Amino acid sequence: MSDSAAAAKKAFGIRLRDIRLDAGLNGQELAARSGMRNTKISRLEHARQSPSEDDVRKWCDACGVPHLIPELIAVLREIEQMWVEYRREMRAGQIHIQSRSTPLYESTELLRAYEANMVPGILQTRAYTVAVLTASARLHGTPLTDVEAAADARLSRQHLVTAGSGRNNYSFVIEHGVLEHGFGGAGVMEEQLTFLLRVMHLPNVALGLIPPWGERTVRAGEGFYLFDEQLVRSEMWTGGFRTRRPEELAFFVKLFARLRDMAVYGDAARALIEAARSSYAQTRENS
């Protein structure tokens, strides 16, 4: 579980405890009124167990604050959506995972994306996407049969970048290491970097690259995508973090600004990409 999701879960437990204390009840008294065990009340307050919506209703009714039930259930649902395990997600298949994001991308006026390890999804070539999705499927032990179709589903939204309708704008920041992580081999990487050089010229795209030798103000970390200032998503090894909580959104807006300040743009970024592309071309010719 991500730090943010764990912190939100802990904060919810503290909120439940404060409601109990404001009602003047100890754990045993709340247990008697709510029908829950005293040990469960302790686990809920210390975030060692996640409450159900029925638990929230019982808690509020027992504490004499039924008017708080809708608010707390809404917060609980938000917390539950903050962390999604890939094993559970993969049950629906990679095609579903890729296709369902398209409406979100279509409605987003400004997408800010940071990646430390791979090219942002909407900028990936098909061959690169297939390599990435194949690696993910093998890591998580899921079938490879729908990788090709899932790649097509991801690529189906790339026109939002390349067609340039004026509605969808993009600000990308990537670490230099993205150029060095050779998904698919030299030929695939050469094609991918060529595409990056092309999209850099688009009026709706800002692509910055954090050079390896520059002074850092924040560490390299997990990639994240900020959709306007309405939703942030971040992927880790075993699951994905997502939230609409205002305090989390504000943090990622600030974080992206600091990452962007470390990046180089224009000719400086193109020179780094060109150098990496030439290296892959040389590797391919020598193989």
From TrEMBL:
GO terms for molecular function: DNA binding. InterPro entries: Cro/C1-type_HTH, DUF5753, Lambda_DNA-bd_dom_sf. Gene3D superfamilies: lambda repressor-like DNA-binding domains. Residues 16-72 form the HTH cro/C1-type domain. Pfam families: DUF5753, HTH_31. This is HTH cro/C1-type domain-containing protein.
